[in-house]
Amino acid sequence: MRFPLISKMGAVGAVTLGLLWSLWTVQGVVNERxxxxxxxxxxxxxxxxxxxxxxxxxxxxxxxETWVTLHEDDKGQRRAxxxxxxxxxxxxATQVQVDAELGVNPRHRGMFKVNGYGVKAGxxxxxxxxxxxxxxxxxxxxEVRCEAxxxxxxxxxxxxxxxxxxxxxxxxxxxxxxSEQAHHARGFHAPLAGVQPAAGTGLSVRLNxxxxxxRGFSMAPVADTTLVRLRGDWPHPSFGGRFLPSERVVxxxxxxxxxxxxxxxxxxxxxxxxxxxxxxxFGAVARLNPYVMTEGSDEATSAENGCIxxxxxxxxxxxxxxxxxDRATKYGLLFIVLTFVGVGLMEVLRRLRVHPIQYLLxxxxxxxxxxxxxxxxxHLAFGWAYLAASAACTLLLTFYGSFVLRGWLAGLGFGAGxxxxxxxxxxxxxxxxxxxxxxxLLLFAVLSAVMVATRQLxxxxxxxxxxxxx
Length: 470
What we know:
The protein is α+β, with helices and mostly antiparallel strands. It has ten helices and 17 strands. Strand 15 and strand 16 (about 255-260) form a beta hairpin. The longest helix has about 45 residues, at about 5-45.
């Protein structure tokens, strides 16, 4: 063969393409397992409750106005016609204070874990002036009749309601199913027959609420002032929605966060009056859950999508084996190329002959590492799974490399290089924000090593074109 090095490079390139297909297959396995994880989340949400969003308490009142209209017919005779119009008056609270304690209870579907939770909340709501629930006749000679005011609380998934105890002036009031609100029907309500709204009169209520859900908990700040304190035992909270906490403390055993949201900073009150949807800022499960009242939406665009603004917290796993395995697999091609560069460099410098089949076997071991990582991480902590898979592949390649490179010292050096690559990959997975700079420095170091090692190499001689030296 006239140009053996070029032919070898072509064969190794073909092997690399084949290994790229194998990496693509492994990534397909990771995606399939991620899909199974989402199915498990959907299954738990369908059986327990989805992501919960709390709206209220709010007051509504239905009033009917009746008046008589005189019409003149074709014969010039006047006829009296009675007409009616129904008005729904909505009044958000002047201030809502929520003091809630939340406990995360992981649920399992097979090998998949889903974070469910239970929240115990004490809610105090007050109205400084109930004049907004009174209606004056709007038509000449009109007569207005109003029903009793209704206190309503809406949630995303009513199946999660465990306890709802309402007290007005220390008197317990019975609540009924359904919020009696057309656009936010899931929840509960209580008719306030003993309350007579009038200008200058106020109202204060206390609500003891226990709620269950999955994935996340959020609130819609429809009151003039919304004050929320939320404590939880989950050490990795993810705060989201349209408002971040004004204060938060995250500890190894949980978190403590407070929000203070004014109606001057939020459009939630206007959106509620306009009948917009109640959406969750953590909507991945909500979109899959047919029992949830409304679709989920992205937290940054909920207002633009016709959803009431919300804020809250979700409960994420900081070490998700599938997301980490997916990121690791994306570095697979770089892994294989760097290994082949190392083998090819030793082949050139030591005048060895490594067959393309041997390149294929080395690459197959590297590809198998990622499949081992996915399968082991489903049963072990990710760190231990990574250690077991990398140790097994490093030992195998050290043993095989000692024969390919014709020497135990060369094999140990080859294994040490592979182990170093695994260490760098683990660092890349743990340092997500610094992954780019670390990867760039690694590539620069490899290129520098190759250039230094081949600085005096006669490439013309290797390519079979004679020597460039006189």
